Structure formats: C-alpha cells, structure tokens
Amino acid sequence: MTGTGTHTTVTQRLVSLGPARGEHPALVGGGAAWPGRTLSYAGLAMILQTAAAGLARRGVRSQDIVGVYVPDAVSYLLAVHAVRAAGGIPCPIGRDATVAMMSGQLTDCGARLLITAGPRTGDALRAADDAWVRQVISFDEEPGTIPFCSLLSMGWRPPAPADPDEVALLPYPGDGTLAAGPVSYRQLAVDLQRLSASAPITGRDVVLAAPPNGNGRDYSVLLDLALLEGATVVAACPESLPDAARAHGGTAAIVHPGTSIPAELDLRAVTAAC
Q1: What is the CATH number of domain 10-271?
Q2: pTM exceeds 0.90, yes or no
C-alpha cells in the first residue's frame, strides 16, 4: 500500500525504550515462553532485534504473513512483535480454532510461517501440513518444529520501518469464516489512543494478562499499551488469577468479557473485547 511517509511502530518504540528501562521487568512467563521467568525491557528489546534477524534468515520479507497460534500472553507478544520487527504481518489464530479452521485461514491468507507453542503444537503442525506451510516455529523444542530460541543466534537487525497504511495485523472472525479484516498501523494507533483513555495503565502496574482470545485486535493493543507505559505483563489464566495476583503483586488484569474477578484481589479489570 502507498501511504504518507513512515510510521514509528510500537515495536520500534519498545526497542528504543529498552536501554533506558534496563532491567525493569517487562514480561513474566506463565506458559511456553520463558515459563516462570522474567524478561526485562532491555532483554525484550534485544530479543525482538535478534528474532527479526532470525525470521529474515528464515525467509520472512516485508508484508509476508505469519500465523500466530499460541496459548499465553507472553508467547503472543514475542511472536507478534518479532514478526513485525522482521517486516511481516502477524495473523492471529483463535484458541478455539479446529485444525480445519486453522488450515483454511493459513491457506486463505497465504501464510509463510506459523508460530506456535505448548499444547497447541500438534494441531499447528497438522494445520500447517494441510495448508502447505513448511516452517513451523515453536517456543518448545517439539519434533517437526524450529525452536524459537534458534532464531536468536543469527545476528540482529533493527525493527523494520512501516508505512502508516500498511497492514499491521490480519485478524479473522474466529468462527471459521474466511473473511480477513486487515488492520493498518494507523488504525492500531487510533485504537491505542482510544484504549489509553478508557483503560488507563501506568508504569507502576503489574498487569495479569489472560490467554489470547477472539480476533486479537483489542487484546494486542491492550498488551502494547501496558508495555509502552512501562508496566510488567504477567501471563496468567483466569482460573489462576488469585495465585498470580498474590505471587506478582498484580494491580490490573486484561481479561475476556464475562470473566469474574474476586473482589478481594483488588484488581482493576481491563476487558479485551477482541
């Protein structure tokens, strides 16, 4: 697409903020990516740059589409921003998608790679095979996949620049309908401004984040908002919110609509509608 100049992406901003924020915790793993471990803002900036180089070595080029089918917030953030750092377009796949639905989505969008993790790896491999996606990257070292960590040893490169009207996210409805709804960098910036007003998050917050849900649009923007503000994002499941809140001093939670948060937890609920 042709737009009006370049746009400073959230990925670029996170990389530029990394050195100043240093060892301040950015991500706390609760699933396949860095389980139980903490990744600092400086570490996040470095991983995004090395993963970008690794994905480029794996053949990802500007505006290539990469499927993202992962079970937790930390894996989701790392996958989405690594893909954007390489110049690609992340295409989230809903957590309730069947193998047939995944295969249809991957075929429809022409995905070049698929990033997955944990218990989803088996279904991801079957869908990728059906859709002729020949490279599956996993946060686990599962047979038939390329370990995500192997991307981090192929040099580094700064995040790719983007035109504001280029596609930044390619969500699908999640019901098996092959009707992609491309979202541009400009549109995500508007979403970010809207959600920053309605769901304020600060650098003092520890944000518990539920697993990915729906088409990923609001979910992506809320996670980006938390990181841009300097908060710590902790991957957590709804059923483990009490334990996660106590263990990490949680102050807010990005949850799916209808999720009930016990009053005694004193967590601000931030709803990810998409």
Answers
A1: 3.40.50.12780
A2: yes
